[in-house]
Amino acid sequence: MKQEHLTHAHAGHDGLAGPAHHEHGHAAEEHGHHVPSQRPPDHLAGRHDHHAGHDHHGHGGGHDKHAGHDPEQFRRKFWLSVALTVPVVLTSHMVMDWFGYSLDFPGLNWVGPVLGSAVFLYGGWPFLVGGVREVRDRAPGMMLLISMAITVAYVASLATSLGAFDLDFWWELAALVTIMLLGHWQEMKAIGQAQGALAALAALLPDDAERVDDEGGLRRVPVAELRVGDVVLVRSGGRVPADGRIVDGAAELDESMITGESRPVPRAVGDRVVAGTVATDSALRVRVEAVGEDTALAGIGRLVAQAQASSGRAQVLADRFAALLFYLATAAALVTFVAWWAAGDLDAAVVRTVTVLVIACPHALGLAIPLVIALSTAVSAKAGILVKDRLALERMRSVDAVLFDKTGTLTRGAHTVTATAATNGFAEDDALRVAGAVEADSEHPLARALVKVARDRGLRSVARDFRSLTGRGVQASVDGATWAVGGPALLRELDVAVPDELSGVTRDWSARGAAVLHLVRLSEAGRPTAVAAFALEDEVRPEAREAIAELRQQGVRKLVMITGDARPVAEAVAADLGFRPGVDEVFAEVLPADKDRAVADLQARGLTVAMVGDGVNDAPALARADVGLAIGAGTDVAIESAGVILASSDPRGVTGVIRLSRASYRKMIQNLAWAAGYNVVAIPLAAGALAWAGVALSPAVGAVLMSASTIVVALNAQLLRRVRLSPGSR
User: Fold this and answer.
1) Whether residues 130 and 233 fall in one domain
2) Structural domain harbouring 489
3) pLDDT, tens only, 319-363
4) Bias category Basic residues: which stretches (predicted)?
5) How far, in Å, are 400, 404, 594, 627, 641 from residue 607 at the CA level?
6) Which residues are catalytic?
7) Alpha-carbon gap, residue 427 to 420, rounded angstroms
8) Which of 539, 564, 592 is the last residue before a domain boundary?
């Protein structure tokens, strides 16, 4: 394994762990120091009912020309237009000839003009208004093409009624507008469903909260009336109404809607809780620390809205093509009209021109990217992946190297007992029980780790006469004997005899970078003797090994770990994780301020680098990397240096980001290819290029094909919902 040194041997450590925490001498010398025992969308701003009528205005990306369009509006217009169109179609002489029936009643010839005009003015109004807006904004596009098509069809229908053309066109006009309404309704519906992440976030907030008054009574109030400092009761099974800290009670909280982790998390007095999470098994009292716009949920809502409104490179390409398509379609329509008119068929010129304008409408092209963006944002938010920078997410699909900060990312960031050895007939459990009792009153991190492991195993005893041996360890009486716990400094100070079977084991532990503590039996009659030893290390997360293996399966060329720890510690962790010698790399003894140099070094070799860190100590490195991922951020969405935020501390979330990036890119390219290919084939057909072979499309058929192409794009994008992003999923 290639070792890189960015600083000298005394470079320090990376925050939670460093050489001083692992090197056996320093650990013991420190062991004796004892201490007595933050604008969301309106509907996330604290009023749950703000989202009730949300109509998903705008689509983000390049699809905002439909801003203000409500699916419900198009639904109503569609069904009323259907009711008006049916009589127009049934009274059409062309349709009667096709199906061999006849109708004859007074006013028959007025059904088409009257009801057709109603369909044009009522059903076509959104398109006409949109077309005028595009002209005013000097941004011609889809709405202008549709409005031109239905206007030409309407004028041709009027002219036919006045005898200018030999066309039966009113039914074509009515069917055209109705089909366009159907396509647009389904498009708005798909976008609305994709953008449902915002509504889903809003729905996490309860409508009311139970506020505890000064006398201890309860009063139900709207969530919007909560203020910082209020105490609220969260019943078992209830949702936390605002961010705060627990002041009474303990419960398992379901935080899956925030972090994507399915397992409930234990929370007790003093722990922070987040609005929208659920107390699954017990009641809590929470003192409110943030409400409305300042809650974590509101911050997540801002990120989701920002991500859905952002544009990537694929969106820029689609926007340019859509703008170009307007001019190509207009030119094709003019050429088509002139060509058929020159051929002496004015009726065909009108029909072919309208069909070209209809079939070339870039509905599918306009939907291709925004729908993917909206869906990917919604899916990722549910999995605890918050995208701040669309370009960063797009780059993630082609990352060559993933650089992990070790402490707290690949390891738990806290020491635990990883090995125990006992001698002189002393059982390991007894040794851990006694050591845990001796250390019970100590606040040193290594002592707390030893006590926690003993208590977790149910090994408890009571210690008396606790005394701190400053700089060396602690001493206390347990089971009538006097004991001391400490490291090398304690052994030297008390001239402790260490049996050979212990010294050999502890030498190996120290060599791999573990902190070593000894349990020493003190005796007035003889020399103190070490009866047991404990290795304490920053434990590697089991899921980190899975993350490394899966990243390798995903084709990441190089896996890199960076740490402030000493080289032996870093080597031991890398070997435990399965790093490949000669391929993967370790940067050891690196100061936090110098971590960005490691990123620059990898980039200088031509690698696209993703940096995974905590977003605080690693801010410069996250900012320099091609993709910065802040892991374990929980609900802290104010991390400016990261392009992607992983709410969970599980490093397997990185593999989910890669899956999301690749799946989103595939869907974008597939949709763009379909939309572009559809127009390449459909426009010549609409213009009548194959009319000589009897293949000609009517405007109504053109509208059906155009709407069908939009539905294909929408359905393809919906497949993103099948991508598994949660940690551990494939």
Assistant:
1) no
2) 2-35+412-539
3) 677 677 778 888 988 999 999 999 988 888 888 888 888 787 766
4) 48-60
5) 6, 15, 19, 12, 20
6) 405
7) 10
8) 539
